[in-house]
Write a structure and sequence with these properties.
This protein has two domains: 55 residues, Dna Ligase, domain 1; 201 residues, no CATH class. The longest helix is centred in the middle third of the chain and has 35 residues. α5 packs parallel to α7 and α6 runs antiparallel to α9. 71% of the residues lie in helices and 6% in strands. It has a four-stranded antiparallel beta sheet. It is of the alpha+beta class.
Length: 263
């Protein structure tokens, strides 16, 4: 027997076989409450009363849940970015407070993933441009290794920064949470990635402009670390003042150690 069903816009679709109805339900194209009736006519009935209960595979459920998490995190990231784009330093704590611990941690990871991917691509181009300029040659090829390895090495920076922030927070026995460390590291990494993108657009020949961009990125990074330590990790200002250079140096040292280990 064939059937008709109503889609989400209440349009009548069909005819389709009972096997196809079951397949549609299994794929979540229709739901248990979707109205169905036989092709020959009759009252509209819920789909579940026609095809019965269809067990969705665990893999499909996991995929659906993962898609929901990614979608929610993307929406949260856009909200946080709206604050950080206007004020990358002063907007750090309000954005974290707006999202809460768990959502802010997810957004921090999202920022890190986006920034690392962008930075890895731009770094490879910048290295090539710098090498070309220094050698006086055009179209010189620079071996930056496998792109996945470059991604891994680029990801070392935010990971080392998050670990350094966590260590500073724990050594000072303050509140804060690892989600806060991830959010701060993500926001800082995003600023650094934007700096790299702008530097790539400007070009390696504009050394003075590149110097200004680098100075801006360094200053914003230092301020973000200080604000993150005081307003998210809950360190006092005197302790945060001492912690900023320690966090910066420790993150650089950890990055260098891991880079050398992966060479």
């Amino acid at each position: 027997m064939n059937y008709h069903y109503l889609d989400e816009q209440s349009r009548e679709i069909g005819p389709v076989s009972l096997e196809n109805l079951k397949a549609f339900r299994l794929a979540n194209a229709i739901q248990d409450h979707t109205l169905v009736r036989p092709e020959s006519g009759g009252p509209w009935l819920p789909c579940v009363s026609v095809v019965g209960t269809v067990e969705v595979p665990a893999a499909a459920k996991l995929q659906t849940e993962a898609a929901k998490v990614v979608s929610a995190t993307y929406a949260d990231a856009k909200e946080a970015l709206a604050l950080l784009a206007i004020n990358p330093v002063g907007g750090l704590a309000p954005a974290y407070k707006m999202l809460g611990d768990s959502r802010a941690g997810a957004v921090g990871i999202f920022f890190i993933i986006v920034a690392v991917g962008s930075a890895a691509f731009v770094v490879s181009r910048l290295i090539g441009g710098l090498t070309s300029m220094s050698s006086g040659m055009v179209n010189i090829s620079v071996d930056t290794g496998d792109f996945s390895k470059l991604l891994l090495r680029t990801a070392v920076v935010p990971v080392a920064l998050a670990c350094s922030l966590a260590l500073a927070r724990l050594m000072n026995q303050r509140g804060g949470r690892i989600q806060g460390d991830l959010f701060i590291a993500g926001a800082i990494t995003l600023v650094q990635a934007v700096g790299l993108v702008v530097a790539n657009i400007v070009g390696v020949k504009n050394v003075e402009v590149l110097g200004i961009i680098a100075l801006l990125v360094v200053c914003i990074t230092v301020l973000q670390i200080f604000v993150g330590l005081t307003r998210i990790s809950e360190l006092t200002e005197p302790r945060a003042t001492l912690a900023v250079p320690i966090v910066t140096a420790l993150a650089a040292w950890l990055s260098t150690v891991i880079w050398r280990a992966t060479m």
